[in-house]
């Protein structure tokens, strides 16, 4: 029954957990039943603020709740695999905040457990579920811009390097590739499938994690060039160039609310106009010949769409999402592993 209340448990009380809990209020039928943190006081405060029915300081206590329909894991990257597998073994549907794990090997453990126990499991790469991105995928699949020839994307936010921050901790699975690179990589795989060639390079900061990583991928007749970094603020757009036009998810594409379609004659213009100035941003919104702008505004931060997909799939008895299958999560981590191996 689709009208039954769907009970969520959240593991973790950080910023992304808070955003997810807030967005659940926008999903019909969703209820925050329990939140778990190693610190009981933090869990209690989170529950009181965001309306969770109860809180606990022990993952086993959360997983023992017979009313829970799904668990959202929003903890440091390094513990995703172990916590996800524990939830799967408890028979709970699992949504794991990106990245699914810190390596393809760990992601494989999750996938094997999900397959063995026939439990729904998905990486929380929420960008794939945004209305603008789903429309972009539909347009590309329908041949609206012809055969894809090239994808270019940058995702970069300046971050001050600090050894005590999770983003700069090797032990917690920090680094630009796992924090930011998974977004453009996942979309590239979403549009084109698994790459046939992978290369790239990284710059490692004093803390021991990558502060800049570039990926160069081959997909038969298409080339993909992606960049992610903590050392600058980037243009943060995702551009798909085809034989008969181009499509651009506007900045910041990871939470895209606009896309722009370019005709074959104006396709090269998709690569321009990436400035961060007010003038550049205004110019990008003005109507021009050969360019069509489509808007897809939404309430909240965008996490509600992945939550709705989990609920749909679990209610339908599915163990994987057709939009965000675990095979794609594995493919992304295999790419990151391969670039890491090149030094």
| Backbone structural class | alpha/beta
CATH architecture descriptor of the largest domain: 2-Layer Sandwich
Query: What's the number of helices?
Result: 10
- Give the beta-strand count: 14
Count of folded domains: 2
Computed over alpha carbons, the radius of gyration is 20 Å
Distance between the termini: 51 Å
At the first level of CATH, the class of the largest domain is Alpha Beta
Task: State the low-pLDDT regions, or none.
Answer: none
Give the overall silhouette. globular
Name the helicity range. 25-40%
Strand content: 15-25%
CATH superfamily of the largest domain, called what?
Dihydrodipicolinate Reductase, domain 2
If you had to describe this structure to a student in words, what would you say it looks like?
The chain has 343 residues and is an alpha/beta fold. It has 2 domains: 6-125, NAD(P)-binding Rossmann-like Domain (Rossmann fold); 131-297, Dihydrodipicolinate Reductase, domain 2 (2-Layer Sandwich), CATH 3.30.360. Helices cover 33% and strands 25% of the residues. It contains 10 helices and 14 strands. The strands form 2 sheets. It has an 8-stranded mixed sheet, covered by helices on one side. Strands 3-2-1-4-5-6 form a 6-stranded parallel sheet, sandwiched between helices. β12 (245-249) and β13 (258-263) form a beta hairpin. The N and C termini lie far apart (51 Å). The relative contact order is 0.15.
